[in-house]
Amino acid sequence: MPSGALLFDLPDYPHERWTAHLRKFLPTLDIRATADAQTAADIAYCVAWKPAPGKLHNLPNLKIVFSMGAGVDGIVADPTYPRHIPLARVVDDTLAQAMSEYVVLSVLYWHRRLHDFIGLQRDKKWRQLPAPRAPQVRVGILGFGVLGQAATAPLRALNYQLSGWSATPKHVDGVKTFHGTAQLEVFLAQSDILVCLLPLTPDTRGILDAKTFAALPKDACVINAARGGHVVEDDLIKALDSGHLGGATLDVFSAEPLPATSPLWSHPKVVMTAHSAAFTDPESFMRQVATTIRRMDDGLPPENLVDFARGY
Amino acid sequence: MPSGALLFDLPDYPHERWTAHLRKFLPTLDIRATADAQTAADIAYCVAWKPAPGKLHNLPNLKIVFSMGAGVDGIVADPTYPRHIPLARVVDDTLAQAMSEYVVLSVLYWHRRLHDFIGLQRDKKWRQLPAPRAPQVRVGILGFGVLGQAATAPLRALNYQLSGWSATPKHVDGVKTFHGTAQLEVFLAQSDILVCLLPLTPDTRGILDAKTFAALPKDACVINAARGGHVVEDDLIKALDSGHLGGATLDVFSAEPLPATSPLWSHPKVVMTAHSAAFTDPESFMRQVATTIRRMDDGLPPENLVDFARGY
Prior knowledge:
The structure is a homodimer. Helices cover about 30% and strands about 15% of the residues of chain A. Chain A is an alpha/beta fold and about 300 residues long. Chain A has 2 domains: about 5-90 and about 280-295, NAD(P)-binding Rossmann-like Domain (Rossmann fold), CATH 3.40.50.720; about 95-270, NAD(P)-binding Rossmann-like Domain (Rossmann fold, 3-Layer(aba) Sandwich), CATH 3.40.50.720. In chain A, α1 (about 15-25) crosses α10 (about 280-295). At the A-B interface, α3, α4 and α6 of A face α3, α4 and α6 of B.
């Protein structure tokens, strides 16, 4: 029996639908939608995504925070976040599955020139467009953690040349791996299609800038399914307009929803989706939350904790 | 040393670029671009795609015909085709690779609703669109030969539910197989995304018609990368307009180039490519032609021959 209540702090999400899953796994858990000054002391667990600054700090008996997504930048951005409280992020097969689908779709979209074909169709022009075969196309995955590595299986089945870059060394069969700042430029220079799946940290904010784009081969395409904060959007537009980059697929933006005034909406070399690459599956996430709460009740350490030093 | 000349009967293709590959493999082969009444008797080999009716019939010493593509309907359509002469079709890894890429791209395009996202972008509308995960999506491959089976590896790596239908029984690990007319309707009823890779024969002409579309689940999407003759285009448009079908990707058409008057160009639920799903690779094809010519010179039987009774 869990000791303490859970604060479900996702005001933009359908409370009943999500917490119903949690009730299924932990029927006796006391689930709250809000915690005021009187009730703050009851809260032992909190499910959050982008909590109001100071909110978590004001829960004196908090034992753990669960991030609703794989990225935790919306939580650790709060300077008052109580860093002695463990923060668990969702590590979810359905999330990795969804992200792999999105990555493979976006890679094939640019490689097989579907963007050009859609333009030709609009103009009612019949034109055969050649494309290299996948074994001649080099896909570089920037951010080679759980999600980046999951995407390699279907990309390998399509016979792409694969490489991955991460902050720390990683080894994956059939993938050329690079790590650290020193190897970033070499990695970029051999990426015909660059897929960003990095966590957003002070080190990676703005990493997709003019310098990075210049290091990519001519006509390279960029796919960002990580965070809007990774991209310097003005630099991206310049690199597309200059003809250096061939195209970009963007799922995330510096401001979301993307303001109607953004030139990205109507850019002829941009395809965008509204932060829809990979949704957290409520049932799968709540199963993880329940498992962790039970583990903690049994005196076991929680899993999938964020390392605050590296920021993910 | 080959006995007899080769007629390269692809008037729309760059003769020099293609035959250069053949010269590399068979330097002494006598390659002709045309054969008139005087020289017809020299021709022992012919590379063809859509020969003029009667043309092959008028080559008295022909030993074999090589079809430039995997489909041979453009050749056997000629009623005067000399059916005692073997007809070899290209069976080419690069062709299967290209087709797999096209199939996976098209399946993901509809499954992940990229068509809807592109429409939303055009209207500058920010909307998150959910989609099921691939393990919940049933992909049915209509025509389960070399190309259809090749596409299963990357689709399986994406965890789709796979099935295949063919005229004769086939067995492939992890794929539910159906065969023959009797099992067609059951196969269709469990295909959320239908991929047509059939050969075009009298039995399969017009197979994608109102009856077939009605047998598919509501909101099913159709991908045709086989031949335009498989589709009754008016029936397809009706099934899209009625809301029964969710969308269609078409690479091939009843007339090619597709006439500007075709309503398919501007249909809001159609994506089209100009017969570009999979081009025959000239080098790979010419290597096959050379190998077969050498085999025949050595008294061995040619490979990848068409069975005229079944038409492919």
